[in-house]
Design a protein that fits this description.
Blueprint: H1 2-5, H2 11-52, H3 66-76, H4 82-103, E1 108-118, H5 131-140, E2 151-161, E3 165-170, H6 176-183, E4 191-196, E5 199-200, H7 206-211, E6 213-216, H8 227-231, H9 302-321, H10 331-343, H11 347-351, H12 371-385, E7 389-393, H13 401-416, E8 420-424, H14 428-436, E9 439-444, E10 447-452
Parallel strand pairs: 3-8, 3-9, 6-7, 7-8
Antiparallel strand pairs: 1-2, 1-4, 4-5, 9-10
Membrane topology: Multi-pass membrane protein
Subcellular location: Membrane
Pfam families: ABC_tran
Length: 453
Amino acid sequence: MYRVVRGEMTLGRCLAFRSYLRKLYSGLDRLLEIYGDFHFSLQSSERYFDLVDRTPAIQDGEDEPADRREKDGETTADPSQTELQADEKQLLREQETKRQSSRGTDETVLEFKNVSLAFPSSALSGGQETASEARREEDDDSAGRRRRRGEVLADVSFRAGKGEIMAIVGQSGAGKSTLAKLMHRFYDPQEGAILLNGRDIRTLRLRDLRSRIGFVEQEPHLLRQSIAENIAYGLYSPRPTLLHRARLPSRSPLSSTEGQNSRVSCSSGPSCFGSLSRLDPRENELQTSAGGHGRLLASDGTASSNKREEEDDEEELEEILSAKEAESWPRELLRKTVRAAKIAHAHEFIRRLPQGYFTLCGDGAPVRLSGGQKQRIAIARALCRDPQVFVFDEATSCLDTATEAAVEATLDLLRKKQKTIFIIAHKLAVGYAERKENHCCILSRKWLLNYKS
């Protein structure tokens, strides 16, 4: 401005100079911000690649289930070698039968054989242990000299067969939840083995293993998606449905009608379209009025009552399928999702939500669900996969008495369908196991103190 006053510069040039100077400063500020963001991103990328480059401690097995191997062999076999492969399959079946009969595992689904697990000392309180603490631990327990620092389970052995319900009880920190994590191979034991249908789970593929074991935890996590997507999580995929239409079975497992115009878009897991319809509460006399789904059927008029209930269910299902949000869903998968919610006694409160099964839930969603409602959705998620083994880890801690009684009826249905069930709970496990005269495992200080039936 001094040069403008003296007439050495025009006012326009002065204003242009100030404008250019302001743009220069803003560019320098952005450059400094980019420099700071670059260093922040560099540190984040180092942590990311450090995580990606790590080798998982749990390695995937190489074996496939026998049913899948036979199916693949039938589709890829050479006609000239059909007779030879048939002889080999027959020999393998005979060997498997002899092996199971010799071990006595023909009815055993899941078996723990002398399983011991210890976490690294660094995962504990700095790995520090005084001599007095070690001596006190040995004095408190006669088998303390066998115990290692950080040991969670020691020499645990039990077996569970088809149609059995096993209650696992114990104090906090006794290792109850660790048993469930060992079944899924979240950890591998240092000693012993875990057998599923007579085979070591370390030889199975993780995907095949975990598709056969349904896990319901105490605090289930719901994704920020619709309730239907949370129940069918892992089975529903937005891929083009025309590519998967050929996979649709000729008879729908969810109803007695033919699924002619149904769309299938799900993963190729073994239980994508399982026998969920066989768990329909109407097929059993184990219903309870607490669940609100049915009543004890009398011998007279049972067929007509079932027919009316089926018609009502079909009308309600058609109403759900006619929603705008259901257009992108495979019809049969949505049927299966609704059926799983009914068996888990979650259908009533879901229908009362603003958008029903398509209501957004999860973190930050406008609809807040209670702990018991989340647990029932988690139970429906496990039922939707129709696994061979169910593990309920404190899965009924937030349920009221009426809903808990309804869950017991569901457990009876699963038991009748030869499902193996593990209940890790204080309130439900002990009483239910005593009433049903099933097995009960008592854990204390990492040891299996009692295993009875």
